[in-house]
């Protein structure tokens, strides 16, 4: 798995994703899925009205986008007045490490996250390497 930092402008708008973007001025997220591109999902959510650029207000509080075709996942967080965007590429999805969580305000969808682990030396284990949880990577909806 390769991890890259992205700018919001580098997220491909014409790709089809499973996931969501949660704008700061909304009570529910923009849900992506099916045969619509990200651009179309955002446009449909705002009913063709003026679509915000999400640079200042409103901004995307959080977002998780999984591209099965491209085998990648994008995580978006807004903290300290700036976006933190990571893309996880070349995913090898291990179903033994997939965790499922019920969504909030998304029609009871089940969110799937893959737990990644990292091997690090541990002084409490005589310096032997032990596995510690690393990042949770969004890998789509279960339903």
Structural topology:
Elements: E1 2-6, E2 18-23, E3 30-32, H1 38-45, E4 60-67, E5 72-79, E6 82-89, E7 98-102, E8 110-121, E9 129-141
Antiparallel strand pairs: 1-6, 2-3, 2-4, 4-5, 5-6, 7-8, 8-9
Outline:
It is built from one helix and nine strands.
Description:
This protein is mainly β. The chain has one domain (2-141). The protein is 6% helix and 48% strand. The chain is built from one helix and nine strands. The protein has a six-stranded antiparallel sheet, with helices on one face. A three-stranded antiparallel sheet has the order 7-8-9, with no helix packed on it. β2 (18-23) and β3 form a beta hairpin. The protein is globular.
Task: For the record, give the distance between the C-alpha atoms at the N and C termini, rounded to a whole number.
Answer: 25 Å
Tally of separate domains: 1
Secondary structure: helix percent: under 10%
Determine the number of helices (DSSP H or I, runs of at least 4 residues). 1
């Amino acid at each position: 798995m390769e991890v890259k930092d992205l700018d919001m402008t580098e997220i491909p708008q014409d790709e089809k994703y499973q996931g969501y973007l949660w704008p700061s001025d909304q009570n529910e997220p923009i849900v992506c899925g099916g045969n619509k591109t990200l651009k179309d999902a955002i446009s449909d959510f705002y009913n063709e009205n003026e679509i915000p650029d999400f640079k200042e207000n409103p901004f995307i509080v959080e977002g998780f986008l999984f591209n099965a075709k491209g085998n990648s996942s994008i995580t978006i967080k807004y903290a300290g007045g700036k976006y933190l965007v990571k893309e996880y590429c070349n995913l090898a999805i291990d179903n033994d490490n997939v965790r499922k969580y019920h969504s909030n305000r998304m029609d009871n969808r089940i969110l799937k996250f893959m737990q990644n682990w990292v091997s690090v030396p541990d002084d409490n284990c005589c310096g032997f390497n032990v596995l510690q949880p690393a990042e949770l990577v969004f890998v789509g909806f279960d339903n």
